[in-house]
Design goal:
binds manganese (II) ion; Ferritin; two-stranded parallel ribbon; mainly alpha; single chain
Length: 310
């Protein structure tokens, strides 16, 4: 089962400008072949389908617990996409009616890379890649063979790292929102690649972690990774559960240390989930009918219901 907490896995700085094409680039990290939908889909179905769970507990728990983190990554990228599509909040902008719609208020949306992100989704995110192609089941590998599935997951995390680095390179220097998404996910993806490498090493003796980092650029070269390295995020794996999945410490244990090139120290398992940060309150745009053209009545109803619930 899953439990839901109304927090974002890390807090995102608000966007300085509306930038739908940057949002389109970020979509590759959501619905691309190596995006968060793919890591989520792979680990989720592998964990459901896992054979001999009791006998292979540390390996099952690794895939099962990382599944939950990937869902939080899907949420993080989706928030980043929507924030960039929306741009900075306009004070009171969601409190007045939508105004005169005959003056082409969204003419500029004809020229954005993913016009459907506005036309269909009102600036929200969906599981498509940077070209708008749908994420699909062909990106899920769940063979039931433990080594093959773990090897696939290692490949997937290295691929995800490559794609994050390239997306990062496309984002302008003042795109704090998009760059924070990439910086955070580069650190966490490196943890996942490392953990799958250690799992394969425990099973086969092959020191596959010596291939890391792939691509061969240290996290310290990316300024947005720095604060996560300083707090030791690159050495931390979460159980994402109050009581379960603690067996991952058999793989991600104190005998193992951070990768050479990253700040040194022992690997640590943390029970539960990260504290996370607050979710950016995405402002409504009445002229785009989000949450509606004239939303005052909704706000009033919701406010009464909220008071009644307290
Ligand atoms: Mn991820
Ligand atoms: Mn991952």
């Amino acid at each position: 089962m899953f439990m839901r907490v109304d927090r974002l896995i890390t807090e995102l700085p608000p966007p300085k400008k509306q930038d739908p094409n940057a949002a389109a680039a970020l979509q590759e990290l959501l619905g691309g072949k190596y995006g968060e939908m793919s890591t989520l889909g792979n680990y989720m179905f592998q964990s459901f389908n896992f054979r001999s769970k009791d006998k292979l507990r540390p390996f099952y728990s690794l895939v099962a617990s990382i599944t939950a983190e990937e869902l939080a990554h899907v949420e993080l990228v989706s928030n980043g996409v929507a924030m960039l599509n929306n741009g900075p909040d306009k004070p009171g902008g969601d409190e007045m009616a939508g105004g005169d719609i005959t003056k082409s208020p969204f003419e500029a949306m004809q020229d954005i890379r993913l016009a459907s992100a506005f036309l269909s989704n009102g600036g929200g995110a969906t599981p498509v890649n940077a070209n708008g192609a749908s994420w699909n089941n062909d990106f899920v590998t769940t063979t039931g063979n433990v080594i093959f599935d773990l090897l696939h997951n290692f490949h997937l995390e290295c691929g995800a790292r490559l794609h994050k680095l390239r997306v990062y390179e496309t984002l302008s220097a003042d795109d704090a929102t998009g760059r924070e998404v990439c910086g955070y996910l580069l650190v966490r993806g490196s943890v996942h690649a490392h953990s799958y490498a250690l799992a394969i090493k425990k099973l086969t003796g092959v020191e596959i972690e010596k291939m890391l980092p792939t691509p061969n650029i240290p996290l310290a070269n990316i300024p947005e990774c720095q604060k996560y390295l300083n707090e030791g995020s690159h050495r931390r794996l979460y159980t994402w559960s109050p009581n379960d999945y603690q067996e991952i410490s058999g793989i991600w244990s104190n005998d193992e240390v951070a990768l050479p090139g990253d700040p040194p120290g022992p690997l640590e398992v943390v029970e539960g989930m990260p504290d996370g940060g607050k979710i950016h309150q995405l402002q409504g745009v009445p002229s785009a009918f989000t949450p509606d053209y004239a939303p005052e009545e909704f706000y009033e109803i919701a406010s009464k219901l909220y008071k009644a619930s307290r």
